[in-house]
Design goal:
With 117 residues, the chain is of the alpha/beta class. The chain has a single domain, classed as Response regulator (Rossmann fold, 3-Layer(aba) Sandwich), CATH 3.40.50.2300. The protein contains five helices and five strands, in the order βαβαβαβαβα. The protein has a five-stranded parallel beta sheet with strand order 2-1-3-4-5, sandwiched between helices. Strand 1, helix 1 and strand 2 form a beta-alpha-beta unit.
């Protein structure tokens, strides 16, 4: 699942992930992201921190506080390298942290590592 408000980034990630054979869900804001995580229970979340209606950290916290979703691996993809945010995300058990523009090859490698564990 991709949760990001940047439609260009979502389109690029969506096309690459589908090409790799993954089924991809998309949400563009916090409200829809929380809803889709609960409804679709994805195998992995690619999460932007700076998204409308609450922000990505609230999605991460909600995911970790819900018995049905707490174990979903989450990779943060963000435009800013805020150490405080990164540290909090790591405390919540993220599986990766990438700065935009994302190196798609490294991101795909990390996704494959996570999903084959």
């Amino acid at each position: 699942m991709i949760i990001d408000d940047n439609k260009d980034i979502v389109k690029t990630l969506f096309m690459r992930l589908e090409h790799e054979g993954y089924k991809v869900y998309v949400a563009f804001d916090t409200l829809k992201g929380n809803e889709e995580v609960i409804n679709s229970k994805p195998d992995l979340i690619l999460l932007d921190i700076m998204i409308p209606a609450g922000g990505g950290m609230s999605i991460l916290e909600n995911t970790r506080n819900n018995a049905k979703t707490f174990g979903i691996p989450t990779i943060i993809i963000t435009a800013g390298a805020d150490e405080q945010v990164k540290n909090r995300a790591e405390e919540l058990g993220i599986s990766g942290y990438f700065i935009k523009p994302v190196d798609i090859v490294k991101l795909l490698e990390r996704i494959k590592e996570i999903l084959t564990i």
